[in-house]
Amino acid sequence: MKLSLATEEIATFYAKMLDHEYTTKEIFQNNFFRDWKEEMTEKEQEIIQSLDKCDFKEIHKYFVDKNEARKALPKEEKQKLKEETDKIQEEYGYCILDGHREKIGNFKTEPPGLFRGRGNHPKMGMLKKRIMPEDVIINCSKDSQIPVPPEGHKWKEVRCDNTVTWLASWTENIQNSLKYIMLNPSSKLKGEKDWQKYEVARRLKGVVDKIRSQYRGDWKSREMKTRQRAVALYFIDKLALRAGNEKEEGETADTVGCCSLRVEHIKLYPELDGQEHMVEFDFLGKDSIRYYNKVPVEKPVFKNLKLFMQNKDPGDDLFDRLSTGSLNSYLQDLMPGLSAKVFRTYNASITLQEQLKALTNPEDNVAAKLLAYNRANRAVAVLCNHQRATPKTFEKSMQALQAKIDAKNQQLEEAQAELKRAKADHKAKKDVKSKEAVEKKKKLLEKIKEQLEKLNVQVTDKEENKQIALGTSKLNYLDPRISVAWCKKFGVPIEKIYNKTQREKFAWAIDMADEDFEF
């Protein structure tokens, strides 16, 4: 069946995702089909009644083949394409900020496609519409050269607002949220904001003991409101929970944070797994990622939770007298700049620093030190509940690693046999040449042993890491100066921890921190 242009384009969005888990989910299929039908002509709507009867395989194959063809291009062709991309980057990828030429982060709008969302997002599969110039607000200084819209179009608005850091913005049609074009993380502006964020968290270090003793005292308060705030703060501090914002009902996924927890999200056990006063949390957090945890809490917290749950239905708020706003304004009074989010940054960074001290052995080689670093980073990712699904390629890459190890073991056996022969040869001849041969074989054996150890460390690391996402905490919650100082102190090259883009983002920390830096 020949489709109209708009209908065909949307069909390609679905076809491209055929080998993706998303297209097997009913909610994705239903949302897609509803939005697709809306864009069809009347005649198409009459004929196409059911998604099950649509076969997208040929379209899918077309794009797979196209992709393969692109990969198989000769080097010169690839170079040509790269030059074209670089030319666009040169033209659109920079702006002038306070007289400095700064790199822009994302200078392209998102192309149309199907909304994916994370976790089981109720809107997955919906059609993300194409952004038109008429949707876009441009933000630049009065005396600058205003970008020209594409022919026959005009911008939604051009404004000159120097109190914000975005250069263009539009509203996307799925969540009705604002999207921005911002500066690259390596820009001075972003670096300064980053530095300030970690400085606030470092200031918290000085007052955190006082805050802790205060919320402990508040567990016995006569005011229900104060008690609820004190218990919520204990969770935010101890479990690094997000505060959770109030949301419009039915508009977005049903996700909660600490302040918006409902009675149904926790269970109390006077005793469980041999520990007293256990609380079991089970809820969907940001991005519909499930938070499941069983933790022992202090007795007064346990008693208070019982009290907060009394005479309430499962769907009622646990902290009914508390809002994120009131919690943050209370924190602001305790320390300027303090909000619930700062606790997450503080606890993440302090955990990394303590774990690195505990796990690093100065005598180890670089591979073993990196394993220690990743383990420390993992402790933080677990604290922050940064999970990921096991990567699709996991089994494949593990098999490849195992094959390398098998080959190395083979080499090791051969090298040991050769060393044995060389020793026997030297015993018989006792000359310089045969002695040199023994030394040479010894060195080779040592080298192979080292390589084997490195591969085994990689296996451990990969296995421990398969369901944990390290990147989020590394880029957003961990003061980079802790990592830089660790690298300098233990002789680990910084590029083993941060790739090129990350080194640009954290250039301020690399310049600033020496090996004695303490968070």
Automatic annotation (TrEMBL):
GO terms for biological process: DNA replication; DNA topological change. Residues 114-491 form the DNA topoisomerase I eukaryotic-type domain. The active site is at Y477 (o-(3'-phospho-dna)-tyrosine intermediate). It holds the Pfam family Topoisom_I. Keywords: Coiled coil, DNA-binding, Isomerase, Topoisomerase. InterPro entries: DNA_brk_join_enz, DNA_topo_DNA_db_N_dom1, DNA_topo_DNA_db_N_dom2, TopoI, TopoI_C_dom, TopoI_cat_a-hlx-sub_euk, TopoI_cat_a/b-sub_euk, TopoI_cat_euk. GO terms for molecular function: DNA binding; DNA topoisomerase type I (single strand cut, ATP-independent) activity. Its EC number is 5.6.2.1. GO terms for cellular component: chromosome; mitochondrial nucleoid; nucleus. Belongs to the type IB topoisomerase family. Releases the supercoiling and torsional tension of DNA introduced during the DNA replication and transcription by transiently cleaving and rejoining one strand of the DNA duplex. Introduces a single-strand break via transesterification at the specific target site 5'-[CT]CCTTp site in duplex DNA. The scissile phosphodiester is attacked by the catalytic tyrosine of the enzyme, resulting in the formation of a DNA-(3'-phosphotyrosyl)-enzyme intermediate and the expulsion of a 5'-OH DNA strand. The free DNA strand then undergoes passage around the unbroken strand thus removing DNA supercoils. This is DNA topoisomerase I. It comes from Crocodylus porosus.
